[in-house]
């Protein structure tokens, strides 16, 4: 029986690879999962005259360095399967970026066909590509294509048909002399007719010592012991941490040089590049990011008060009507008090305090996301996360945590490395969620802004809130590095981050998506845990023991620990009871100080007077702000962490790590304050 040749189809995500696959195979295709992987596998067949071919659509990937399941599958299939050739699909509108994958593939095998797709889109953008010149530089066949144009597909088919007669002379990437010497010394020990190429095997022996598939393949050689001995000898003399970066840098530089020779822009560089010169610049990128963050907080603080007050008035007015209704149907007084003044009041407070800031913050955040700015944030912060031995994608999940830490934890799925994903999950709570904003803003306004009102007051509050966020970011780096050096040791993975083009935001869709998918979703989860919390708080405030409520007994018990870290027992117990929803911390503090049986609302001046009368100073306020930033995740976030990690151990670690930081830093602040006699 005649063997059917296998062709691999590779390419970056969103280059039209699936369109090429469908155009070649038509209906002769089926899907499944790769063996042992939950990554989709597409396979199809087509014929050219009397010759049949099997086409395997590899997962979309930016590189073959195997930092993710997709990269590992693509690399191993190209390397170790009996492929006749690999077709690498590129995007003509951003050829430079796509050439990275082309060059990596050529290093593995010389039987490569480069299909430059989306030539029609490039024409619209007045981009010209010299395909003949590109073919000469790469030393492999190059085909231009517009996947929806049948004529270009015919050209690809004819290239596949004549591949056996093509004189391949693939480009050889030249690395630094020291690396080249090591490659040659290893390559001399390897068979010259291997698939993948001996040069690629030598290179991977240098930068991927833990590649099990590679080691298994090397062991099939009779002189494998000598090869591994040489590998160990060379790696002992190498600065291995920077080796992969050097290799990647060389490939990227080669791709840039080739692109400059074959790509011509008929008009001046796109406006996007000019914008990115400012937004991703080492000097201006971070300051612009902080200014935008500050503006978002200022708008949120300025606008949230009015709808929050309206909701509070409306919902608490309904409380009276609800109580009257329950009395009218002869519900026992204690049950009415428990349900209305306990559960309903907590629910009303959570909705009134939480909904307006979220309804303002989330659309603005989604607007930046829709605009294409968030990947620029990840780009700006990648260097710092690399220093912490984690991945720059953590910046995106950190931003998501500003809205809701549970959403930030779920967003960690975008990180490919399991180790780095776990670090991002554990440290996400260092970024304050929307539920902590009301407490932070209230304390900042009362103790650090003072009588300064109007627009300047909100500006100062936004600046100080931004400073608190920056403290959380700094501690995210510190804790990430701590985990990377202890419980989760490892080398940070390299990744290619695609900076998407800037898009005009669809305002209507942004508002709908942010309100429905984020605001209401987060609010629903908060409400679900706030109701039982309201019941527990009411019981603690109304059950008396020796003339004092259980709530006061617990507060008195925690007083020594609270004072040690610059707080008191009431504040500390309020944070414990606020585990279901951070929004209810301040109301619990008010209720406990006033010895009331249910939550009550006070204006900022009234609250400020109450806190001062109960011994608060600016030091107490500062420690409370720090502890609000650095304490255990809420119940919703904990449940999400347990679901994502499937581990009680890592959920407990996520709970204890920020709490430990909170206790230590608050203790340091309180100790310094006592040394200078700022507090008794």
Account of the 3D structure:
There is one protein chain. The chain contains 28 helices and eleven strands. With 680 residues, it is α/β, with parallel strands linked by helices. The protein folds into three domains: 6-165, P-loop containing nucleotide triphosphate hydrolases (Rossmann fold); 175-236; 285-675, no CATH class. The protein has a seven-stranded mixed beta sheet with strand order 2-3-4-1-5-6-8, sandwiched between helices. Strands 7-9 form a two-stranded antiparallel ribbon. The protein has a two-stranded antiparallel sheet with strand order 10-11. It is elongated and about 95 Å long.
Report the sheet with the most strands, covering strand number, pairing sense and barrel closure: 7 strands, mixed
Number of helical runs?
28
Low-confidence stretches: none
For the termini, the CA-CA separation is 92 Å
Which structural class should the secondary elements be placed in? Answer: alpha/beta
Average pLDDT rating: 83
Query: What is the strand content?
Result: 5-15%
Instruction: Output the radius of gyration.
Output: 31 Å
* Number of spatially distinct domains: 3
Overall shape: it is: elongated
The count of DSSP E runs of length 2 or more, i.e. the number of strands, is 11
Oligomerization: single chain
What share of the residues lie within helices? 55-70%
Give the strand order of the largest sheet, numbering strands 1, 2, ... along the chain: 2-3-4-1-5-6-8
Compact description:
The chain has 680 residues and is α/β, with parallel strands linked by helices. It contains 28 helices and 11 strands.
